[in-house]
Amino acid sequence: MADKKMPTSHFYYSQRLRLHYLDWGNPEAPPLLLVHGNRDHCHNWDWVAQALCDDYHIIAPDFRGHGDSQWMMGSAYGHTEYIYDLAQLIHQQNLAPLRIVAHSLGGGVALRYAGVYPENVEKLIVIEGTGGAPSMYRPEPPHIRIREWIESNRKLSGRLPKRYQSLDDAFSRMHEANKHLRADQARSLTVHGSVQNEDGSYSWKFDNYTHVMSCFDINYEQTKALWGRIDCPVLLMAGKESWFSDLKREDPVQFFKNARSVTVENAGHWVQHDQLDEFLDLTRSFFSE
User: What is the pTM assigned to this prediction?
Assistant: First the structure.
């Protein structure tokens, strides 16, 4: 595209961490926050942002430990910390009230934010984000959960980031992981999501410790109570060919005041990539209601 829009990079601070976000300009337009999933990064939204940035002031953050944001040191990654990061960005940039589109982990975080601050969110689209943190569903007593968390972190401390000998090798891994991605999408996600090591190899930017979430979290009943506090319309989106559709769970729509769901054909977990045009049509239609 000859007139392709380009964002600018910015940083803000949350719990003393230096966190990164992209600003797609058009500050006089209504604000729209695009929130990525676990071990993804803000550039996952580039194609969506390019299509919508004439109509919205788009902000796309990198969560702590992801993309170009700082890694945590001496603490755990968890939904509550991610919520704080969103809350700080929205507060510092004076974005509320706003609209949010969020994917996977980002969807779960955005739903909780909207339950805590229902007055701040006008409309919310969540792509496969109602699964929640695994600790929500765990019945084990605290001593078992803490012990497993300690042992998981201990094992992770010896886990080295995966290294690829070339950017092409990393691209191949990215492309293999999602059969729906176009080659140009996989290439862009690889370029923005990887870093070259001192020896010339490439690794993904995300912190390995994002593989282990906090061992305690609010439970499923408390999460549903937060969903019930959301005042704005909510669109829950899923891909027909995603592993997410195979999970045997209650229909989450019933726990919201005003929500509906849609399943997109020929799409996996990343609906916004796999069926971009349909995703944009659904988004524009929902936002125009």
Answer: 0.94
